[in-house]
């Protein structure tokens, strides 16, 4: 077991770009045609992209329903374990086995793309195209969410300015503004300065667009009418009597709906191997549920043998919300779940290595040490258990990297087998669908197999108990410590009729616990809930169990300083 | 001459909507095909809309150049005189005469659409479709302008936060933020509050997106490479030594260009009579030049016998900038100009009536009084003279309204004939192209006739003298009173090498003078210039000669409170 001094060259960003550039897209109408979508439901939006009219859903009623598969992961390292590439590889693998399969993904935020990390369109030979459009405006859905959100913001301040009824309390306005950029200087502002004609002075804030409740609403709405009603329920603040004031009362919900009409139509694209990809909505994975849209899933399930979707962060986060928030809203039940792992993440969870996002992996992490797989394996076993808590037996996908050692794969298989779970190595980044066929076979088998999907908690369970249920059963906490005000608020909402909503816990994604430095499957800890908030439009209550940033900042050297065009007009350094 | 008590029902907003709904769009590929555009240059963006790849320009090199016609107007009343409908009617009329003709228009701002007035897609039987998409997001160009603008803003504050070199002076940052909404509470803000990690506290502001210099840049760029260079020249503020700092120095210009790549492609749509319409860019008509894009005009002129474009506000404003800023940047020379008038505007300029935007016209204005046409005629004669100052003899288009009296049309013809100008009544709103054929004939004749286009001033004329030249020759002022600081700044820019730029004067559009209450052709006044600003990227200096709002506010009852969807999902009250 000779230690390796440096990381072997993986398929990196430059390769992603050259692979993407060399690819030949099929006309998007052809992809839609393969899905059996009626031509009038398909609206091309530039090369290789179409919006799907919601009439597509109606036209498809009665068609056989496909298998519904969610891709989640063990607790990730800061750079992530490749859920997106695995989901894309998986549809390509299923396609090679003769199935029709569609992948449904979130739209990446533009701010982070211009900041640190580049986009989220997969990598290597498991990418969705065209990369440049996906990573920037796509078809403008994020802009529409921002416009609808900020229209309500402007109307709230206009309401205050003209002292319209019900009279808002300027100290109790919860509805902030959003922008799809990393702009730390807008985290805390005072607005309404100037003269009498320039609004009412008060504190305010901007968050990144993905954090908008409007984004969560877009992802959870199952029709235009449902969208309209959810927007009407958004709570913007309190009036002088302390009563909640909604977007309906401000008179904004209708115009917001109209602004979102195009955005409600899912975007159809294709993978490198021409499998259909639906990219639609991108809510935050902590203060919101972190899953792509219900409407995209409906369409995919009506048109394909398999609909593969990705849920943000680890199984304790995105998958838990997928099961308990998204499936509750949609009425759909999943048929299988995939837990993505990497050799490096399992070894990282041994606690023997430090990994920092944006920096090269430490050489020690890349050396052959199968025993570290077992040391970090508690995390995988817990996340498998988290999926099983919802009645599904997951498949483990080992996302292969060039530096991996066969002995370490064997250790992962052994770990998984110890709890009767199948684990398959997938080389989809290097080999496309050809590298994920074993995984695809395992997933297809799991989807056909026995399962007994169930929610983690009933609607009737009180809000505080729902939070406790997730904390103890999923995170492995011994209990929850509510700040007194948080507990009080939950009781108020319980009395006001919001008690049947599901809950969303905003905590770090880097640990099963609320402390990002605690790896593996931490025990002997309690979840601190310092604040709770109501997303009445999206339809959940969220609890803050950590310091969650809703507006990132640029570094001293953001990606945007390198992104440019070359002499032939081609974009450079965007990936 | 019996006075009429109420205004006869014109073709109003409801009719506009029902006419638009009843229309059957042709596939946009068919419109593009008629123009001889190569298929690969046409990218459909939803039904009835396509973006035109800039390769369309290259492919068309060597094709015969069409006639270039600008539509301007006399000094308008607050509700406007119908330049947009006239421009649309005119292409339809030209088409009926057997010519190919394309209309190029600005994209309307979303904020005002949601606020007071509805959109800007024409009216009656002279509309561009699809109305709903044009008035809201269209293909996202305004959002892209906002994103590019605000990326630079975020990078400026990031630069300040990390104290990057050159070190910015936080008290001398001119680059604000933008949003495409009416949001008065953002006119004056303090940003960068919070803790050490949340930026540097300073004053700031939001303007409406149409007021962004990036929008003016988009309209004036003639290629992707030119766009890149103009963005690099944007001045964001001063460093600690008082030197100008550019977007290039901040490192933002490349990423801004990439964000604007799709937006640089003009949007092809169609009129109700299937004439091609290019809707592209929408810079402000006062602090910027108020004209649609140069690239759209290039494409239209390469593919049609006539390219008709509209310039914002009256001939003293939009047309003057069209001639001296836009044509200077493009190198194109206009072949004809149309001055739109209405009976009501001429009578309004008699000074006998009060007209308020959004309120019904006073009954007195609608009564038959041809003598008032002559009383208000000084304004028309001056605006005709303003066009002639650039070497073109205009055609007067009388935009017909249902309450008009033939005696008043005769008075207008008589007035125009007194200065050897042809005036034609156009009923394009009621009759489509069939109602504008006489106008179209007059325009075609003028375009074929003799002309001697010239700029109003040479590049070499000093900046202050350029402002004086416009004020005295076009506005009819006796001179210009510069605030001392304004004069000093002009001298500084002159020394720094900006002296060859054209100038743009921001004054009220409701009077030839700087006082909106002075009608007709005011004499005996001087233009006060209180401040001057440099738009180094767009390539002009602008002078503030009035109180110009760059961020509107909503009223107590904005249009957005009525815009909604009905039970079948159709949009209501958007027009």
Automatic annotation (TrEMBL), chains A, B:
Keywords: ATP-binding, Ligase, Nucleotide-binding, One-carbon metabolism. The keyword Cytoplasm does not apply. InterPro entries: Formate_THF_ligase (IPR000559), Formate_THF_ligase_CS (IPR020628), P-loop_NTPase (IPR027417). It holds the Pfam family FTHFS. Its EC number is 6.3.4.3. The keyword Ligase applies. One of its GO terms (molecular function) is formate-tetrahydrofolate ligase activity. ATP binds at residues 77-84. Pathway: One-carbon metabolism; tetrahydrofolate interconversion. Gene3D superfamilies: Domain 2, N(10)-formyltetrahydrofolate synthetase (3.30.1510.10), Formyltetrahydrofolate synthetase, domain 3 (3.10.410.10), P-loop containing nucleotide triphosphate hydrolases (3.40.50.300). It catalyses: (6S)-5,6,7,8-tetrahydrofolate + formate + ATP = (6R)-10-formyltetrahydrofolate + ADP + phosphate. One of its GO terms (biological process) is tetrahydrofolate interconversion. It is an enzyme of class 6 (ligase). Belongs to the formate--tetrahydrofolate ligase family. NCBIfam families: PRK13505.1. This is Formate--tetrahydrofolate ligase. It comes from Halomonas huangheensis.
């Amino acid at each position: 077991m000779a230690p390796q001094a440096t990381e072997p060259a993986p398929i990196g960003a430059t390769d992603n770009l050259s692979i993407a550039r060399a690819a030949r897209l099929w006309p998007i109408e052809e992809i839609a045609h393969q899905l059996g979508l009626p031509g009038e439901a398909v609206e091309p939006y530039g090369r290789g992209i179409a919006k799907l009219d919601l009439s597509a859903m109606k036209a498809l009623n009665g068609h056989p329903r496909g298998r519904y598969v969610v891709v989640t992961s063990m607790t990730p390292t800061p750079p992530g374990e490749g859920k997106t590439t695995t989901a894309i590889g998986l549809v390509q693998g299923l396609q090679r086995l003769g199935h029709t399969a569609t992948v449904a993904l979130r739209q990446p935020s533009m701010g982070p793309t211009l900041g640190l990390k580049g986009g989220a369109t997969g990598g290597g030979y498991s990418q969705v195209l065209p990369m440049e459009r996906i990573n920037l405006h796509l078809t403008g859905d994020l802009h529409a969410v921002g416009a609808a959100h900020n229209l309500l913001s402007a109307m709230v301040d206009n309401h205050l300015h003209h002292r319209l009824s019900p009279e808002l309390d300027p100290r109790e306005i919860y509805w902030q503004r959003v922008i799809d950029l990393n702009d730390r200087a807008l985290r805390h502002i005072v607005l309404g300065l100037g003269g009498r004609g320039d609004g009412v002075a008060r504190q305010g804030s901007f968050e990144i667009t993905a954090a908008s409740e409007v984004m969560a609403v877009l992802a959870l709405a199952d029709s235009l009418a449902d969208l309209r009603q959810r927007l009407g329920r958004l709570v913007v603040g309190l009036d002088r009597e302390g009563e909640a004031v909604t977007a309906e009362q401000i008179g904004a919900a209708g115009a917001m709906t109209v602004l979102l009409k195009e955005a409600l139509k899912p975007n159809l694209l294709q993978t490198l191997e021409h499998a259909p990809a639906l990219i639609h909505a991108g809510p935050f994975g902590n203060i919101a549920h972190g899953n792509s849209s219900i409407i995209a899933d409906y369409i995919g399930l009506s048109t394909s043998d398999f609909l593969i979707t990705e849920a943000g962060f680890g199984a304790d986060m995105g998958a838990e919300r997928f099961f308990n928030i998204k499936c509750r809203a949609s009425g759909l039940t999943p048929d299988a779940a995939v837990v993505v792992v990497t050799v490096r993440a399992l070894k990282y969870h041994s606690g023997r290595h430090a990994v920092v996002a944006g920096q090269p992996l430490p050489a020690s992490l890349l050396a052959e040490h199968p025993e570290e797989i077992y040391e970090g394996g508690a995390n995988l076993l817990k996340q498998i258990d988290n999926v099983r808590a919802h009645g599904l037996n997951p498949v483990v996908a080992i996302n292969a990297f060039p530096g991996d050692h066969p002995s370490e794969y064997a250790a992962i298989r052994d770990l998984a087998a110890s709890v009767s779970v199948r684990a398959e190595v997938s080389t989809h980044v290097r080999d496309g669908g050809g590298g994920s066929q074993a995984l695809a076979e395992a997933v297809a088998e799991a989807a056909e197999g026995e399962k007994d999907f169930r929610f983690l908690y009933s609607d009737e369970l009180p809000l505080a108990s729902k939070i406790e249920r997730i904390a103890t059963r999923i995170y492995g906490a011994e209990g929850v410590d509510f700040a007194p005000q948080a507990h009080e608020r939950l009781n108020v909402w319980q009395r006001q009729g919001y008690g049947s909503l599901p809950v969303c816990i905003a905590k770090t994604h880097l640990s099963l616990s609320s402390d990002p430095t605690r790896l593996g499957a931490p025990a002997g800890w309690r979840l601190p809930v310092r604040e709770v908030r109501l997303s009445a439009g999206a339809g959940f209550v969220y609890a803050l169990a950590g310091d969650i940033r809703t507006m990132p900042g640029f570094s001293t050297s953001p990606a945007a300083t390198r992104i440019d065009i070359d002499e032939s007009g081609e974009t450079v350094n965007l990936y």
